[in-house]
């Protein structure tokens, strides 16, 4: 896996087998989704769970569609695209009310992952949902988010079945809002007070599925330093399996015959879950930016430098598979 950030890249090198061969990414944006409004669903007096209260999903209620799971059928629903809103697809009045789209809606589609992904950790990244999101895979609750309109990840590893078609369903509860730009109106959800917001409910951000190795970079932030020859890489490395230590090392990736960047590595002991590291990257003969009005603009990142995070248990680099139309072992 290679994570690009501006002019610097950080690679993950792990033991070479199917379980840790790199990151598989599948975009869940666009079509193939269906939307069904559950207008009879009760929600106004629901108990709400903040992230610290929703760590054990087995203790949370499982909300079945009114009429049963069979209601989540394309024949009963509207074909939609994600990102999307209930108001976008279900408004029928020429003078809509902010309450028209309030309540429960189900957004669903099928997914089928390659059988070669067995043994991987599989995550679904939601960029934004308004407001409460309950995520089900084959009728099993696998995720819950109450914050709304901010990114969150759902770990579906225990429920996913690579090689088989599965139903992914997102139960979205939208408490309403307003159609103007004023934010001082207080909102209530039963006995809870919630932040005011616009009355547009649904999956309003992009959705992505990642199958990752037991050791992977989950976040990276490149921080500028006073010296233009240096930059600090702040990484979050997630460990979920047998790997106990990691080492950051320099790689010699040349561009036009010279080494672009390097940093010195040392061995770190990894804890289960997130591990945070700060690395100072030194650039060799950095190129200063020069503006030219006739210069063309490219949407592709230019990345001549590379550094590497590797398991100390392995000395071999993992191969990167070629990309396909819908998914790839790719840069994030």
Task: Characterise the protein shown here.
- With 332 residues, the protein is mostly beta strands.
- The protein is built from 1 helix and 26 strands.
- 28% of the residues are buried.
Large-scale geometry: globular
| Number of beta-strand segments | 26
**SSE sequence, one letter per element:** EEEEEHEEEEEEEEEEEEEEEEEEEEE
Strand content: 35-45%
Please state the CA-atom Rg, rounded to the nearest Å. Answer: 23 Å
Q: What would you call the structural class?
A: mainly beta
The share of residues in helices is under 10%
Largest sheet: 6 strands, antiparallel
Summarize the structure.
This protein is mostly beta strands.
What attributes does this structure have?
single chain, 332 residues, mainly beta, six-stranded antiparallel beta sheet, five-stranded mixed beta sheet, 2% helix, 42% strand
Reconstruct the topology from this structure:
Blueprint: E1 2-5, E2 8-13, E3 24-27, E4 30-38, E5 78-82, H1 86-90, E6 103-112, E7 121-126, E8 129-130, E9 132-137, E10 140-145, E11 152-155, E12 165-174, E13 187-189, E14 192-194, E15 202-203, E16 207-212, E17 215-224, E18 230-239, E19 245-250, E20 254-255, E21 258-259, E22 261-262, E23 267-269, E24 273-283, E25 307-311, E26 327-329
Parallel strand pairs: 2-25
Antiparallel strand pairs: 1-2, 3-16, 3-26, 4-5, 4-6, 6-12, 7-11, 7-16, 8-15, 9-10, 9-12, 13-14, 17-18, 18-24, 19-23, 19-25, 20-21, 22-24
């Amino acid at each position: 896996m290679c994570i690009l950030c501006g002019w610097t890249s950080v690679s993950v090198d792990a033991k070479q087998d199917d379980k840790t061969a790199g990151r598989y990414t599948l975009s869940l944006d666009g079509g193939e989704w269906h939307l069904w409004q559950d207008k009879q669903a009760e929600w106004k007096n629901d108990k709400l769970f903040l992230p610290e209260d929703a760590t054990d999903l087995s203790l949370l209620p499982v909300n079945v569609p009114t009429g049963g799971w069979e209601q989540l059928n394309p024949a009963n629903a509207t074909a939609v695209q994600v990102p999307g809103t209930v108001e976008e697809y279900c408004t029928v009045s020429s003078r809509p009310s902010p309450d028209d789209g309030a309540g429960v809606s189900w957004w669903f589609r099928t997914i089928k992952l390659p059988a070669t992904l067995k043994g991987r950790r599989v995550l679904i990244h939601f960029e934004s949902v308004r407001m409460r999101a309950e995520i089900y895979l084959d009728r099993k609750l696998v995720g819950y988010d109450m914050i709304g309109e901010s990114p969150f990840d759902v770990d579906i590893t225990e429920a996913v079945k690579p090689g088989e078609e599965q139903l992914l369903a997102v139960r979205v509860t939208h408490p309403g809002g307003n159609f103007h730009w004023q934010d001082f109106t207080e909102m209530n959800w039963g006995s809870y007070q919630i932040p005011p917001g616009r009355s547009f409910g649904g999956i309003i951000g992009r959705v992505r599925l990642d199958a990752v190795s037991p050791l992977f970079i989950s976040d990276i932030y490149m921080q500028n330093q006073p010296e233009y020859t240096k930059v600090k890489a702040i990484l979050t490395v997630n460990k979920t399996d047998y790997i106990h230590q990691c080492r950051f090392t320099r790689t010699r990736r040349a561009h036009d015959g010279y080494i672009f960047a390097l940093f010195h590595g040392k061995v770190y002991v990894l804890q289960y879950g997130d591990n945070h590291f700060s690395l100072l990257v030194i650039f060799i003969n950095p190129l200063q930016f020069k503006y030219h009005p006739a210069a063309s603009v490219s949407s592709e990142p230019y990345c001549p430098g590379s550094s590497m995070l590797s398991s100390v248990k392995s000395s071999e680099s993992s191969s990167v598979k070629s990309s396909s139309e819908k998914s790839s072992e790719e840069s994030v």
